Amino acid sequence: MSSRPAPFVRPSTAAIAAALAALSARFGNKVVTSQAVREQHANTATWLTNEPPDAVVFVASTEDVQAVVRICAEHRVPVVAFGTGSSLEGQVNAPFGGVSIDLSEMKEVVAVHAEDLDCVVQPGVTRKQLNDYLRDQGLFFPLDPGADASLGGMVATRCSGTNAVRYGTMKDNVLALKVVLPDGEVMNTARRAKKSSAGYDLTRLFVGSEGTLGIITEVTLKLHGIPEAISGGVCPFPTVEAACNATIMTIQSGLPVARIELLDEIQVKASNAYSKLTLPESPCLFVEFHGTAAGVAEQSERFGEIATEFGGGPFEWATKAEDRTRLWQARHDGFWAGCALRPGTKAISTDVCVPISRLAECLTETQRDIAATGVTAPVLGHVGDGNFHLTLLVDLTDPEEIARAKAFSGRLVERALAMEGTCTGEHGVGQGKIKYLKAEHGEAAIGAMWAIKQAFDPHGIMNPGKILPLC
Ligand SMILES: Cc1cc2nc3c(=O)[nH]c(=O)nc-3n(C[C@H](O)[C@H](O)[C@H](O)COP(=O)(O)OP(=O)(O)OC[C@H]3O[C@@H](n4cnc5c(N)ncnc54)[C@H](O)[C@@H]3O)c2cc1C
Questions:
Q1: Which DSSP category does 358 fall into?
Q2: What is residue 327's predicted lDDT score, i.e. its pLDDT?
Q3: Residue 2 has pLDDT above 60, yes or no
Q4: pLDDT of 250 higher than 80
Q5: CB of 333 within 8 A of CB of 146?
Q6: Among 59, 246, 316, 393, who pairs with 345 as Cys (CB 3.0-4.6 Å)?
Q7: pLDDT at 212
Q8: Best mutation site among 69, 72, 79, 87 for ligand 1 pocket (most ligand atoms within 8 Å of CB)
Q9: Mean pLDDT of the chain
Q10: Would you tell me how many other CB atoms lie within 10 Å of the CB of residue 300?
């Protein structure tokens, strides 16, 4: 399969002007062209250069999205969907200009079917808003990227978070999507049934498509019952390797851990300072179990024994909600805590994922590389999935340091791929990881991805310059 389109090009000034005139006629002051708002909609949170769109349109309905897409399609102007802009690989940048479609005003929880454990939401609903809405019904949605991301953005990046080891990633928790296609037509990918073998799995095609195939305007999600009891705590280890080996043993022995998160020593120091914690300054695992009171007690005890086998502990666990909330907020703030370690630098945030049996090896080699390269790079990991993140703090005024950091990032991905892993477990490809896609998937798979892109989006208006390598 060798379907390769012509390279994307920036539309002419006349085409942009015509599209903006038509959008302003339809949307009035919902079309914003101020520099600050355009730059905010190309925010990358990391070191990638800000590439603002020509305008931002705030939409309120599927019909609004259809109207924007139809106008942009007519003038061959790119459209970039925007949820909360918390993605980390330049996904919302607009390298070819065009229109950012801001979906944050589409924040209605359309329906909750408690008896079926599912709900239907508009794409601008954030994960925290949804969980606040569901709490009274004893239900929750478990996916929790560190940011309070929008559910549309979470679908589009195939994100996960701390609970994925127990509840799966976004690909496991989406039942159906409503999507506005690049010609403005509306498509439903599936129905509410928990399973279906009726035709191609279009839902999963759009999960992780980063706005390159269409704009998601409604999401049907699986929900879960709030567990009767939750236990959790922090367990220190002498080394990262010991913490990884304890994690591997926990997973391989079938202990149903709900969260198991690694912070290396430097990340622990950063989180102590940023989140006012007093954790022992050595590698730590944050661990949590969900179930009945007896079940979580038994599982916590068993985890404590496993930790001891690898020289870790004590594992002090508790079931008090306030302590847990503080701890997990600190975990979610880990990225910002890491960034605060070297003020004035920018973060190159990266994540890789390997099969769990290779985790200790991959992380140990990576730590050796960090020391040899002389970079500041705290490690945070959703290690139960074999997934870990590094926040490389780089002085962007020092070209030699930038080169060293980029070479280190490249070696990290090569290491993960050599261990049959992936260049990104959850942050997605955006602009930052395009260069690794061919090495990960091979020519034939990239050709198939281009064929899909061409079939859905023949004029290349949907978030051009993301995911797919040009050659
Ligand atoms: C501090 C911090 C911690 C993080 N931790 C994690 C983590 O633990 N796990 C994890 O997986 N991620 C993590 N992330 C990354 C981020 O939160 C996720 O990528 C998130 O899923 C993006 O959601 P968003 O609403 O911000 O999307 P945006 O950044 O607005 O958009 C992301 C991509 O999705 C597309 N998109 C957005 N909405 C739609 C839509 N309705 N239809 C079609 N395409 C759409 C955009 O065009 C873009 O390509 C973290 C980020 C930060 C800043």
A1: G
A2: 87
A3: no
A4: yes
A5: yes
A6: 393
A7: 98
A8: 87
A9: 95
A10: 22
81 lines ligand 1 (CB under 6 A): yes
The dotted CATH code for 229-336 is 3.30.70.3450
Pairwise CA distance, residues 304 & 281, whole Å: 19
Residue 392: helix, strand or coil by DSSP? Answer: strand
Give the mean pLDDT of 87-108. 97
CA of 86 to the centre of ligand 1 (A): 5
Q: Phi then psi for 438, rounded to 5 degrees? A: -65, -40
C-alpha 470 to ligand 1 mean position (Å): 23
Q: Count CB neighbours of 228 within 10 A.
A: 13
Q: Does the beta carbon of 85 sit less than 6 angstroms from any atom of ligand 1? A: yes
Whether the CB of 303 sits within 6 Å of ligand 1: no
Per-residue pLDDT tens digits for 178-222 = 999 999 999 999 999 999 999 999 999 999 999 999 999 999 999
Q: Is the CB of 104 under 6 A from ligand 1?
A: no
Quick one: 350 exposed, middle or buried, by C-beta within 10 A (0-12, 13-18, 19+)? buried
Comparing CA positions, the residue from 67, 78, 66 lying closest to residue 15 is 78
From ligand 1's centre to the CA of 152, what distance in Å? 8
- For the Cβ of 145 lying below 6 angstroms from any atom of ligand 1, the answer is yes
**Could you read off the pLDDT of 401-445 as tens digits, one per residue?**
999 999 999 999 999 999 999 999 999 999 999 999 999 999 999
> What top-level class would CATH report for the domain 13-104+446-456?
alpha beta
pLDDT at 324: 85
Those residues whose C-beta lies under 8 Å from the C-beta of residue 212, and which sit 6 or more positions away, are 453, 457, 462, 463, 464, 466, 467, 468
* Token pair listed for 385: 């999935």
Residue 6 has pLDDT above 90, yes or no: no
- Cβ of 54: how many Cβ atoms within 10 Å? 21
Burial environment of residue 198 by CB neighbours within 10 A (0 to 12, 13 to 18, 19 or more): exposed
Q: Which residues contact 292 (CB under 8 A, 6 or more apart)?
A: 228, 229
- Ligand 1 close to Cβ of residue 215 (< 6 A): yes
Domain with CATH 3.30.43.10 in the chain: 13-104+446-456
Q: Among 10, 12, 70, 58, which residue's Cα sits nearest to residue 34?
A: 58
Q: Which of 61, 158, 159 to mutate to test the pocket of ligand 1 (most atoms within 8 A of CB)?
A: 159
Nearest residue to 306 via CA among 384, 242, 381: 242
Q: 405 CB contacts (<8 Å, ≥6 apart)?
A: 348, 373, 375, 392, 394
CA torsion sign for 19, 8, 170, 128 is negative
- Choose which CATH entry (1.10.1200.10, 3.30.70.2740, 3.40.50.720, 2.30.22.10) describes domain 341-430: 3.30.70.2740
Q: Which two tokens stand for residue 229?
A: 């009891």
